[in-house]
Design goal:
Blueprint: E1 2-8, E2 13-20, H1 22-39, H2 52-59, H3 61-84, E3 93-98, E4 105-112, E5 126-132, H4 136-149, E6 152-155, E7 166-175, E8 178-179, E9 185-191, H5 198-204, E10 212-218, E11 232-246, H6 252-258, H7 264-297, H8 305-325, H9 330-336, H10 341-368, H11 375-389, H12 393-402, H13 406-423, E12 427-433
Parallel strand pairs: 5-12
Antiparallel strand pairs: 1-2, 2-4, 3-4, 6-11, 7-8, 7-9, 7-11, 10-11
Amino acid sequence: MVKVEIEKQKENEVKLKIEMEKLEVNSNLDKIYIDTSYQIKIPGFRKGRVPKNILNLHLGKEYFYEKTAEKLIPNCYLEAVKKINIQPIDQPEIKVIQIEEDKPFIFEATVQVRPEVKLGSFDKISIQKEDIKITDSDVKNEIIRIRENLAKLKIVKDREAKKGDFLIINSEGYIEGKEIEGSKVEKQIIQLGENIPPEFNNELIGCSAGDEKEIKILVPEDAKDKKISGKEIKYKVKIVEVKEKELPELNEDFLKTLGNYKTIDEFNKDIKGKLEKQMEMVNKNNYEHKLLEKITEICEVKVPKVLIEREVEYMMKNLEDDLKSKNLSLQDYYKSIKTDEEKVKKEYEIVAEKRIKQELVLDQISQVEKIEVTDMEVKDRIQTIAKEMKQDPLKVEATFNKNNNIDGLKESIKREKIIDFLNNKIKIVNSKKEVQSKWL
């Protein structure tokens, strides 16, 4: 058992004075002595049989006190946090006040905690709920997208390469006149457009089969491979072929490749039905976004800097990973949008603060209204997911457990319950919009 005293510091920071009884201190101190006696080699003494006074002579009492403190602090701190029911949002700063044999262990832990949230009056909120409909144009665009995905590539002979074309190339890279090991490729396929470095687009748009190009790319200073960072790579590229997409005709033969469709009208109706289901989700997400923005606006909470910094770091990592998947670096991105890291982080800070404030408000609502998720609700949701996926519920549950996603599922259900609670508090004004959806 621990004794805890709490003292409020600046804003959302608290200082805990934590005390552990001396019997627990002595017990852990003795274990440290015993463990050390088995590890240390001292002439004249067998392992595990070295007396305390000899160990103190060789290592000093302070060594054993420090080791005991290191062992006790984590569990003592967690017990104290649980006892006084605070929610830390960062690692604590620890200061040992007293650690001696036959005396209580006393230390201080200064830590930032979840900020206070003052909820507003939800019944004063009015939201217009828009219902965007799928149009014939949406269906037409979706069918074009399907045809493009199933398109074949045909060789182009009567014109030069343009954006969107596919090139079959041979290439090899050089730095300072020396060939880069492993850089030589033959009959590689690339598509002119956004997914290749801009230097390649600039040189290859307008080319023809048989052309040879020399393309220079400056490697960013922050590249992970320090051997090439900041250096210029010169690519020698030969265009073997230029190809373009040839879309399949929308006829009965094409429909047979997609499913059991008898007519084009039947296919169109099926596509429209699928798009309408997707649009239902878009409408739902748009409404919830608007709702949560309104709710957050009328609530008061000061978001701690440490949470904003952590969220910005997470967002920057996601950005970098996304760019890497497109063979681009952060420097390429900054250059393309004419900005720098500092400006991007400042923009991210605004987004991060709004996002965290929203989560803090939702969490406060769930606590005040005692909104919780039962095991039965989780099982019911897994049953629903399994039915949609046409899989065995036990296998679906096993997958959630294997990937440690049960907690995420609970949070998703809790969020839905909070939304339901808010829907019963606010005023919803329905409207209908029959416009072409921009998301398609």
